[in-house]
Structures are given as structure tokens and as C-alpha cells.
Amino acid sequence: MERVSVGRLKCGLIITGCETQMSSTWHILGAGSLGSLWACRLARAGKPLQLILRDEQRLADYRRGGGLTLVEHDGPRHYAIPAETFAAPTPIHRLLVACKAYDAAPAVARLAPRLAKGAELVLLQNGLGSQDEVAEQVPHARCIFASSTEGAFREADWQVRFAGHGFNWLGDPANPSPPLWFDDLHDAGIPTQWTADITTRLWRKLALNCAINPLTVLHDCQNGGLLGHLAEVDQLCDELAILLQRCGQPEAAQDLHEEVQRVIVATAANYSSMYQDVRHGRRTEVHYLLGHACRTAARHGAEVPHLERLHRRLVDNLQARGLRSE
């Protein structure tokens, strides 16, 4: 296994000629699948990094392992990325928020005292709703939304496998200009595009997830198993398209049926992220996916009886398993 050591900056500012710039350190909150995937690629490109872990026990566990391991087609590589807890005193100028949607706002609230003025946050959460919750916690920071189709899963603590090449779109509904550090992502081999229509991208992904993920849980199947339930899938797509039109996202509604079926076929052997969360007894992000869709429909007066029934069935299923459903 190849081991790569990653150093840390000795101060929070970089002096270049007469200009003072914000620290180039990437702070990464969340050492799950996507957080670890981004961290390892940034480390491989020589970018200064700092993982943020939830407490001293988790930090001790991480240090015993010596870093993160990324498994790709050419085998595992180990990256000795430095880590700290929420309580570390150093200021944060750039933060990748890679935790689950329901953890994002509480975690960022804990870090708010450390965020420098003008700090920039990249929000890598599924669904919609958590982005606004985070922004409310840190009005002095810039929140950049991300939508990703990349796939990764943890094989063990501190070890992640890159399971599916995809793409990442980043954007800021309040500011069309990309941040100065955007080229860091290209340097790290993270396929990324800055987009002015990030909200449309997030709505499109939410619709895809709502049409696929809950049904895989309820029918206990891989994505491809939904080919036997296409009538049910089509009913959901009909209502999701109506909802997208009603809430001002007509582009996200275009060819939704075809795109959902294409994803089902292309990922037929995969288990959805929601299915995997349920199988491992983890809390799902239903509140920010199907829940968000139903709440938005109610606000806009859109009738979505199949989506609402699906939401009730899923909530009942989760509660029967002893899992949280909010």
C-alpha cells in the first residue's frame, strides 16, 4: 500500500508580495464516503487539508489508523491527513461539509465561532432543505451548493472505495462567480463544473431520488428490481414533474420519466443509498428528500397523492424498524 504524508500550514494566512490571502487549507467535516473521497484526492494533489472529527475518542481512533485509505482500480493508497476536533482553535476559511443532511446544520453551528469572516462552505448534502438550514447558522459565510453523481462507500473505518465515476456541479444561487480556489478541484482530479443553475440540478437529483430510493426500501430490492414496478415509478414521475413545474423548476422536469428509467437500468445491480442506510440500521435522509418534496407540494397547492402515500408508507416502514423518520 502506498503511503502519502500530508503536511499542514503553519499559519492561517499566506503572504504573497503585498497581498494577504485567506488560508488555502481545506477543512473537511465528515469522514464518510464522499468526504473521504474528496479528502484523499485533494491530499494526492498536495493540497493542505485538515479533517474535523466529532470528539477526542474519534480523533484517537483515527490517529491509531494513521489516516485515510482510498481504494481504486489500482489498489489502496494511504493518506496521512492531519485531523482535529471541533474544539481546535484555528480559524476556518474553507470548509467542505460532507456529513449527512440531518447533521449538517448542527455541526456547522458548532463550528460557527471558528469560521473566519468571508469563509466559504461547500455543502455536499443529498436532497434540499439542509442548505438553507446551514446558511441560517452562518450568515457571515458564503454557502456553495454541490450536486454529485459520484459513488463511494466505506469498506471499513477510515477506508473508502471509489465505486462509481460521476460528476460534481457547484454553484451559489446568491453569487454567480466561482471562488478563487475552484481550480484546486481540477488539480485534484475531481470532475467539477461551476454552474449558474445549481438549484435546478439539486431539484432534478431530488426527483430522481424520490422516484427510486423509497421504492427500493419498500420492495427490498436493488435498483434494477424497480423494472418490475414501472407503473408505480411512472405515477411518481407524473407527480414529481407537476411539482417541479409548480415550484418554478421546469427544466428539472424535462424528460423525467426517461431519465429515471435510464438511471434504473444503468444502476440495476446497485442498492440505493437509502436502502443501504436502512440495511445498516442508519437514519435515512427521507426528511430532505421525499419529505421535502411533499412539504413543497403542500406550500404550492400541488396535489401529489401518490408521493404522499409513498411518504407515509416509508415512514411507517422506518418506524417499524426502530429507525428515525424525521
Give your account of this protein's structure.
The protein has 326 residues and is an alpha/beta fold. It has 2 domains: 2-195, 3-Layer(aba) Sandwich (Rossmann fold), CATH 3.40.50.720; 200-320, Orthogonal Bundle (N-(1-d-carboxylethyl)-l-norvaline Dehydrogenase, domain 2). It has helices at 33-44, 56-65, 101-111, 130-137, 183-187, 198-218, 230-246, 250-253, 256-266, 273-279, 290-300, 305-320; strands at 2-5, 13-16, 19-22, 26-29, 49-53, 68-72, 75-80, 83-85, 92-97, 115-123, 142-148, 151-156, 159-164, 168-171, 192-194. It has an 8-stranded mixed β-sheet, sandwiched between helices. Strands 1-7-6-13-12 form a 5-stranded mixed β-sheet, covered by helices on one side. The longest helix is centred in the middle third of the chain and has 21 residues, at 198-218. The radius of gyration is 20 Å and the shape is globular. The protein starts with a strand and ends in a 6-residue tail after the last helix. Residues 7-21 have low confidence and may be disordered.
